[in-house]
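task queued by scheduler; priority normal; single chain, no ligands, no partner chains; default sampling; output format set to structure tokens
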Amino acid sequence: MYAIILAGGSGSRLWPLSRDLYPKQLIAIQGDNSLLQSTVKRLQNIVDDEKILCITNIKHANDVKFQIRQINSSAKVIAEPMGKNTAPAIACAVEYIKQNSVNDEEIIVLPSDHLIKNITAFENTVKKANELAQDGYITTFGITPTYPETGYGYIKTAQSIKNGYKVEHFVEKPDENTAQKYIDAGCYYWNSGMFCAKASVWEQEIKLYAPEIANNLKELNFSQSLSVPYGVYEKMPNISIDYSVMEKSTKTAMVVLESDWNDLGSWKSLYDVKEKDSNGNVIEGNVIANNVKNSLIYSAKKLVAVSGLEDVILVETEDAVMACKKAESQDVKKLYDKLSADNLSVKTIHKTVFRPWGYYTCLAEGEGYLTKVISVSPKQKLSIQSHNHRSEHWVILEGRALVVLDGKNYDLDAGQSIDIPLKAVHSLQNPYDKELRIIEVQKGDYISEDDIIRYEDAYGRV
């Protein structure tokens, strides 16, 4: 069996904790591992590690690779040059498998942002889905609904078959009254977005129902690179696997997921899985609460004082505060979309960004400049790199820095500074035992993290 993990989403409903460049699947929301790492580990008893594929946006690829290495996994990472929804992503990953396997193996497709604790029950369900896949079905995993959720699609089942049901049809996200009718009917299940089918069945159904995707797959050659070329991907339609294939196919079946499940798709779903106090609250961070009930209050840094609130979500990060009614937490996406329309950077990146070598915090920015505090952990170093559009000025605040600049080494102590000219090849390194902290001032006509050309990197990001 192969596994495809879809790891390219933006996690817009969990803004401001989740951002474009560091979405929820990369965050350790529950436990020590990120949601992505937990998904990979969940598969390792049923899928050979080298047959696990993570497909993600190119802007997340380095972070995905780093997180996979952290859990000692050899899973492969396929990078898509832009977001085109789940159908092109799955199709490209299936094409990779087709080019790298001589057998017609089953393929399980999983989102990277699900929370599942009962791994044994999950594995049992996968085995049942796999048996139906061997019979030629695209098997989906249905979740028994526990309340009239309006943020999920639903699956209506038909007659029973081995281990599950045939699918009568898929249903769009309903309003609350319709969702309650589905629950009362007893034959509707939440659509988890997990699927299992043979490679040949995936290929046939994509060719039949999504020929505009299938035709572009002919141009892919994964023996050369695991990055999908922009010229191929830009011709793909932006469409989900549900719309393009599942709702049209006559080969769909469903098994009921036996384990616990939460897709952590909203702040309410996060509230549901967190431990609560005697007032039904989830309170994390620097918070003072008085007469607050059944709410989630989260503070990343500032003191948040709340009084007389019930059934609300309140989230503070360094650069944003978000508040909404708990029952309307799905609508946070509308706020996120408005941020996108207004081109506000607060949707893209946190003020503090963690990297394998440490972290940096943005202090101030404007047209043509950006100021950061960069903290490098002991024995760590940034990649050897250059920039085409900006120069930099570094001032050492704490610790001692080893600066590599155009082939020469410079040891700098606190209070000393150095200029990094445009296009100079350089690296900031901390081979010492104490934390290194500097101020970096960037100046140029284009200030962005994608203006980095890496030549050598200790964390495999070249």
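post-processing summary
- The chain has a mean pLDDT of 93.
- The two ends are 30 Å apart (CA to CA).
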